[in-house]
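Sat 14:20. Reprocessing the chain from the morning session after the first attempt stalled halfway. Input below, unchanged.
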Amino acid sequence: MARTEGARDALYHERRLAMIRRLRARLGEPGATHASWRELAAAAGVGLSTLAHYFGRRDDVVKAVMEQDLADGAEPLAVMAAPSGPFGPSVRDAVGHLAAGLSHGGLSRTYATGLVQCLRHPSLGPAFLDTALEPTLRAVEARLQAHVERGEMAGDPRSGALMLVSPLLMAHLHQTELGGLGTRALDLDAFCEDVAERFIRAYAV
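Finished this time. C-alpha cells:
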C-alpha cells in the first residue's frame, strides 16, 4: 500500500531530524570549521545528493542544526522567561538555570559550535544570533522586565540581561570549551553566586 502524503512528510522530517542529530555531533568536533560536504554527508550517514536534497548547501546544514537546537531549547527558555518569585530569588534562579544549561544541558557546546561556525560569517552570524544568543537574552530580559513592572528592579531589562548572561557565558566557555579548567581553574558555582549577588545589589529597588 502506498504511503499517504502525511506519512511521507512524517518520514521525511524523521529522517531529516536523525541527520541533524548526527551532523550536530560532527560540527561540534575539533576541525569541523573546515569539514567538507563529503565529510558532512559521511557524518550524516547519507550520500552527497541525499544531503543536498534534505538541506541544500553547507550553510543550510549549520542553520538547520542551530534551528533544531532552538526548538529543543523551547522549554528551558520558557522557564527562564518566567519570574520565579521576588526579584532576589528570581535572579538567583535565573543564574542557576543558565549555569545548569551551560554545564549539563549542552548550551556551552551550542555556543562553542555556533561561534566556530558563524563568527564573522555574513549569513551564519545573524543566524546564530537569531537561534542561540538572542533567544537566551530575550528570555532573561522577559524575566527582568516583569520585575521592573512590579517595581522590584531599576534600569533597562535588556542591558541587565546582557550584564547577567555575559559573565556566565564567558566563564563557562573559558573553563570548558577553551580548556581553562586545566590552566586556570575557576569555582564556577562560587562565581555564579557572586554574579547573582552583585547583580541583585546593583539593580534591586
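Residues 138 and 151 are 20 Å apart (CA to CA).
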